[in-house]
Amino acid sequence: MSDESLTPTPDTSKSEEVKPEDVRHAQVEQAKARLAAAGPQSDGSNPIVNDATYGDLREKNRVVMRHKIALNIDNFRASTDDFNARPQQEYPALKSVRPPFMSVIIPNRNGERFLPTVLDALARQTFQDFETIVIDDASTDDSVAIVENHYPAVRLMVNRRNVGFAASCNLAAAAADGRILVLLNSDTEPESDWLEALARTIVTHPNAAIVASKLLLFEERDVLHSAGDTLGVDGIPRNRGVWQTDHGQFDARREVFSGCGGAGAYRREAWEALGGFDESFWMYLEDVDLSFRARLMGWETVFAPDARVYHHLSANAGDILSSYYVGRNTIWNIAKNMPDAILTQHLPAILRAQAIVTRDALANLQGAAARARLRGQIAGLLGLPHQLEKRRLIQQRKYVGDREIERALETAD
């Protein structure tokens, strides 16, 4: 390959159309002559700056700038002798704010008719070192307006969309300032010494991550709804003392497996270590799941019999919702948390308990709640792969022996 083939051939057609070659040559020669006449630039300045055309434009710009400055001077005013360009501002000293001992979190969904009762009951508490947070889960009633207009001291959080009970509690807990997180359903009425009883119990039980309240029916105030929760080796959670008349038979302060999330206290460090409620549960048994995970990590749940709360049953959810979520979340709770040895030993009891639930639902298939329970069981099975992924991490982190966990479970009938 010759050197001539490597020499580029310029396309002069376009440049010739714009500027003829003789004109271009004349301009180049004229520029060279001007540079020669100017002589060497010993000061290192750019000779183009000294060009007559450029200098004329520069002078015109100076004239324009001087004119603008002169116009602005007419707008200036002389300052007074006492003028201070930066007056010193004095601000009051910042007040030190001590965070409250407790943060009472009230998740609410269309509970406008219940909010005045629960908020007024909190105002009557004998223990006053707490803040109140209402987190509204996209209610379609006047819940938000009631809090805004009548309870200015209450911190209000509003979800733009319905995210569920578990997620709402997690959001409010993240915003809370208290050392102890207290969850309280909007459809409840605590007695005046409720918070005092919770505070006394959690302070005197340093290994308690959770303190469970005594829940009684709102309309029948001597009938128990829960004196703490139990969990059977068959994986079925149960309300301790449910439907019994309260004669003081459950008035011993003792350890229980779990506490109802509708009225319980949670130690913040335990809550944060566990990551709060599992939001995939949405609602129902999220409290049992949290208690199970806490127990696997060495924490305990204590029942406070003198922390009394009255509860409207199914006021915010209903039998159909509870049937679905209990059916689904029971399976997920077992899949996530039951240790291997216990799961293997009691698998027949677990399967038998689920078969009984299925049988009873099929026998009452005309009922909406029964159909919801079946749908819940199916959803529980379909969601097992995701829950088993969580199981690996939970079981890796546990450091309580299986036998100790088994002792905390109720024997299946």
Give a brief rundown of this model.
The protein is α/β, with parallel strands linked by helices. It has 16 helices and twelve strands.
Write the layout of secondary structure elements.
Blueprint: H1 3-6, H2 13-18, H3 21-38, H4 52-73, E1 102-108, H5 115-123, E2 130-137, H6 143-150, E3 155-159, H7 165-175, E4 180-184, E5 188-190, H8 194-204, E6 208-217, E7 224-226, E8 229-231, E9 237-239, E10 254-256, E11 263-267, H9 268-274, H10 286-296, E12 300-311, H11 319-337, H12 340-345, H13 347-363, H14 368-382, H15 384-397, H16 402-407
Parallel strand pairs: 1-2, 1-4, 2-3, 6-12
Antiparallel strand pairs: 4-11, 5-12, 6-7, 6-11, 8-9, 10-12
Helix pairs in contact: 10-11, 11-14, 11-15, 13-14
Verbal overview:
There is one protein chain. With 413 residues, this protein is of the alpha/beta class. The protein has a domain at 102-318: Spore Coat Polysaccharide Biosynthesis Protein SpsA, Chain A (Alpha-Beta Complex), CATH 3.90.550.10. It is built from 16 helices and twelve strands. The strands form two sheets. Strands 1, 2, 3, 4, 5, 6, 7, 10, 11 and 12 form a ten-stranded mixed beta sheet that branches. Helix 11 crosses helix 15 and helix 13 runs antiparallel to helix 14 (368-382). The longest helix is centred in the N-terminal third of the chain and has 22 residues, at 52-73.
